[in-house]
């Protein structure tokens, strides 16, 4: 299993890949964009499954906090996925416009949340490194 700092380093490549995908999507037709959306959803689902599996391996003290966050995130994702499915069934132009505006705002909010999560991850990785150093010092003094 990769260390926290190694996993944090991997975030950069994930962000770079996502950026390339978003930039490429701007020039794609509806069919290709739809396929890219499906690919992104599958990737997000796989990522969520990995996080869930990883959380099952965490310590009991952390497990409750992680489990609560995961459940809230899973509920949120399910709500958004239902809204997307409902949107795809719409034929009313005004409703479609409102849903497009909602989707755009949701995307902005998701990016803000991801940025905050990265900052929290940075804090957690640095704090874990400090906690390890402090524990090692105490073990050496014992």
Explain what the structure shows:
There is one protein chain. With 142 residues, this protein is mainly alpha-helical. It has one domain (4-141). It has four helices and no strands. Helix 1 (4-25) packs antiparallel against helix 4 and helix 2 (30-55) runs antiparallel to helix 3 (60-88). The model has no long low-confidence stretch (mean pLDDT 83).
Tell me the fraction of residues in β-strands, as a range.
under 5%
Number of helices: 4
Share of helix, binned:
over 70%
Structural class: mainly alpha
List low-confidence stretches: none
Overall geometric form? elongated
If you average the pLDDT, what whole number results? 83
Our measurement of the CA-to-CA distance between the termini, rounded to an integer number of angstroms, reads: 29 Å
Structural domain count: 1
For the biggest sheet, the summary is:
none
H/E series, N to C? HHHH
Q: Please tell me how large the radius of gyration is.
A: 19 Å
| Number of E-state strands | 0
Q: Summed up, what is this model?
A:
The protein is built from four helices and no strands.
Describe the SSE topology.
Elements lengths: L3 H22 L4 H26 L4 H29 L4 H49 L1
Helix pairs in contact: 1-4, 2-3
Notable characteristics:
elongated; 142 residues; mainly alpha
């Amino acid at each position: 299993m990769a260390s926290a700092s190694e996993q944090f380093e991997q975030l950069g490549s994930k962000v770079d890949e996502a950026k390339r995908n978003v930039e490429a999507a701007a020039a794609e037709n509806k069919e290709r964009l739809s396929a890219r959306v499906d690919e992104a959803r599958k990737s997000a689902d796989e990522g969520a499954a990995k996080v869930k599996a990883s959380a099952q391996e965490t310590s009991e003290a952390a497990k409750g906090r992680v489990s609560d966050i995961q459940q809230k995130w899973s509920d949120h994702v399910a709500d958004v996925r239902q809204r997307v499915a409902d949107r795809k069934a719409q034929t009313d132009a005004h409703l479609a416009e409102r849903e497009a505006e909602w989707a755009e705002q949701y995307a902005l909010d998701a990016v803000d949340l991801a940025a905050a999560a990265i900052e929290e991850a940075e804090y957690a990785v640095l704090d874990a490194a400090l906690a390890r150093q402090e524990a090692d010092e105490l073990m050496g003094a014992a």
